[in-house]
Each structure stands twice: as C-alpha cells, then as structure tokens.
Write a structure and sequence with these properties.
Blueprint (H helix, E strand, L loop, with lengths): L2 E4 L9 H5 L5 E3 L12 E3 L10 H5 L5 E4 L1
Length: 68
C-alpha cells in the first residue's frame, strides 16, 4: 500500500498538489499553520492513495515523498 508524506514546515500552501490529485484526497489544512505562516497540505484519506506521484512531481518545493 502506498504512503505519502509531506514535510509540512517547508510547504507554502500553494495548492498545486491539491489540484492534480486524481483521488481528491489532498487538502490544505486550514486548522494548521507552519512556522512560516502557511497552511500546509496533507492527505485526508491515506487508504485511497494510489501512489501515482502526481503530487510529488508538481510540488515546487519538493515537500512530498511517495513510498510505494
């Protein structure tokens, strides 16, 4: 089963990963702020992740790691 991890401290909340996720399971965490003042992205339902790596590929800050 694939696993996706976000380095929340480096995420600037641009939302690109949210827009490309085919499963629509990535969302900006509106209840969280990192030390830079951004709402980091995160997985809402890890069980539905297919490990497609689209989110990691589009991330400009390389904060997403996908393990297959």
């Amino acid at each position: 089963m694939p696993r996706t991890e976000f380095t929340e401290e480096r995420c600037k909340g641009c939302g690109l990963c949210v827009s490309v996720c085919p499963q629509k399971i990535i969302a900006l965490q509106k209840d969280k702020l990192n030390s830079k003042g951004f709402h980091p992205a995160g997985i809402v339902d890890m069980d539905r992740c297919t490990g497609c790596t689209l989110c990691a590929t589009i991330c400009p800050d390389v904060v997403i790691t996908v393990y297959r």
